[in-house]
Structure prediction request, 489 residues.
Amino acid sequence: MQKQKKISLNQRLLLIAGTAFVPMLFCLMYALVSLNNATTAYSKITHNVTYANQCMEFKDRMDYSMYLAVIGKKDYEVLGKGEMTVNGTVTVDPLKYIGETKKKCMELSNLATVEISRSQMRRMQNILESLEYRVVEMERMINGEGTYDENMDYLDQNIYMLTSIIEEGFISYIQNETTNLNEVRKEQEEQNRRVYSFCIGISVLAISASVYFTIKALQSVTVPIRKLCDLTQKVAEGDFTVKSKVDDMDEIAVLTRSFNEMTEEIGGLVDDIKEKEKNLYLMETKLLQEQINPHFLYNTLDTIVWLAEDRQYKAVVSMVTSLSGFFRSTLSSGKDFITVREEENHIESYLKIQQVRYQDIMEYQIEMEPETLDIMIPKLLLQPLVENALYHGVKKKRGKSTILVRGWCEEERLIFKVIDNGKGMTLEELDHLRENIRRNPDERTSKSFGLANVNQRIQHYYGKEYGLFIESELGVKTEATIIIKTSLS
Prediction:
């Protein structure tokens, strides 16, 4: 008893505060370090993908510059002045451009987060050296040692082939880094579970210690400490909004104020963790939106080559313009929201490109009411629906089909419909599609990932009462309907 009397009330309460505050502060530091590591990993991969995307224009600029050098016998240094061509491609000095791209490949190799990406960039440097040799040889042929037909054949067989391989290498790099992003996300989810369990354990220990020392002080501060214990229990149950009323200026009041500040800080930490997890989710969604479908790009470029070989130059210009507009809308300067007018231009560019390939089986109409055109919506809402209508409706039906895209306002709702009179679906297929759209991301099948992603983003921004709704009748039509609010407020 004598020993206990030597401990003042202030010392006892400071001991109680210390047993609660120090572990919580340790939990805070541990959580912040974990979040910082995850953010660093995400930022590095995002930077790599963005930097690799900047190299995607290599093939267009290189091919077109070499083409101008062959048909116009233009000097490489003249092309290096960077003149804007009819189709929007800026010419380059091929040899200097290859040297710059080598440096970029070396940087991408150093920045890569997985070994396969580093190996890919080292292989790309070797291919660029081979391309450099062939460009020098091409210059010699242009300057008099080769006929026009020989020059064009050499350009097609040696230059275009290697630039296509280089473009595939950049796409492969982006895919590898994006795949690693998913692994980082899984590791972070596991780390989050460990942080949560650790913090809960430390919190329980801290609360238990606080309660123990509080009991020791009950003889002199029974009522205030009992109230404080009650509040501590509420905090342990997850309610960080509780506060104790402070009337006095004594040591109990100091402890009470410290307790209020502590709960507010813990509540802010929980809210901060939730906000950062939300931001990480939005970042992942953005990277998925900005992935380029290589098959669509290959098919479009093949069509452009075929049109060029057939001397349909107006069609080539129209095709390249539509492709440029399509990817400009896809990237949207990093914006998450665009106007309905921009979305309309995006799907029109896509349909123009596809109509060249499927003109015998596909027609399309786009009907947007004027009052909808300036409304802001999440980008890339309609293109997955149009693509689904083409590949799963129009292509699977014999004869010509039509894709109709409509948009209008109804009270405070904005409604879009994508209708095709293609193959349609059985009731069983329709039920399976609807179920897949509602599933969690890890449970979906790849066939309807785009539609499910659209529905998930709509509900994330607007709420569960909005989304994507599918109706279909076998052999008659399929109708996809998007319902959102005219504003996010």
Notes: The beta strands are 337-339, 362-368, 376-378, 401-410, 413-420, 467-473, 477-485. The first helix runs from residue 2 to 5. Residues 1-291 form one domain. The CA atoms of residues 10 and 482 lie 63 Å apart.
